Amino acid sequence: MYPTLAKHIESALKNDVCSIGHRGSAFSEIYNATIENIKKIFDVPDGFHVFFLSSGTECMERIIQNCVGKKSFHFVNGAFSKRFYDTAVLLKKTPKKLEVDYGLGFDFAEQAIDEDCELIAVTHNETSSGVMVDLRQVYTLKKNRPNVILAIDAVSSVPYSSFDFDYVDIVFFSVQKGFGMPAGLGVMIVSERAFQKSLRLQLENHVVGTYHSFYALDEKDKKSQTPETPNVLGIYLLGKICADLLERGMESIRRETDERAARLYEILDSHSKLSAFVKNSAIRSKTVIPILTDNGSEEVVGFAKGKGMVLGTGYGPFKKEQLRISNFPSHTPEQFKKLCELLTKIPSKD
Ligand SMILES: *Cc1c(COP(=O)(O)O)cnc(C)c1O
Fold first, then answer.
1. Which residues, 6+ apart, have CB-to-CB distance to 7 below 8 Å?
2. Ligand 1 pocket test: which of 53, 57, 58 has the largest number of ligand atoms within 8 Å of its C-beta?
3. pTM for the predicted model, two decimal places
């Protein structure tokens, strides 16, 4: 959790945030303040919509419903990018994918994508494998085909990540990873082009969803409200944590993330027992770092536990052999220092 979270939960209770009506001015003020701070963090230009949903997974479904009549294209290199693709299949679209193994990236500029693909889906940071793709390369997809809608899953790269909205139509994330908040809130930034596409699909009789169609979200957004009774507490807390991040300065947060990631990979590259799972340093994630262990993850997790630290294990099939370290702004310098010391002291079995 972000270090100031407890303080903000207390102030929420004190200010009745959990019981205010979601059609009143008190809520609208919270709503506007949070959206304003999100726009500041990511430098979102005028003309983009910001919508609140319930999770990253919900964002995937809403994006397919609202922006794809028939065909989307997905770059798949792990469990979350695969989920986006599977969502399109389940919604009876006919998506295409380029799928590579866990730990690998893509040569975006080289991809021949069918002319009739309406949307391209890219996962900025594949949390299951620790691959972070270079967005400058992703933008070439949009430069080559300005009419396509480019959607970026940024769930585990925010708030570190930044975007060039000249080339991005949709960015979405949830808040329980990089923002260090309780789960239950998704945020989607939507270009006017993507919004208009949704209106066109609706006119053409496509099912674009009900209460969370882009149209329904926008109708309420005009009144600084949401269609449903939203996660008011989550929206409030996100606004407060964004304010804290802005006060620290996004540039310095991004620099610190880079420095910490570099330090972790440096430790791993010279370690006798541990190594980075992603071999190509150009696509190594700055925010989620999977580690190969040579005696299994359990041993290292146990060793860490004895030193008072909880280490995460690898994703799904990699649980037994990998560790995963997150590098988020919520981690204090003391925690990071302790982590580095711990990693360098992993005992040898021999
Ligand atoms: C966690 C995650 C998701 C899913 O987000 P939820 O909020 O759990 O639905 C999607 N994409 C990526 C890259 C993730 O790390």
1. none
2. 57
3. 0.97
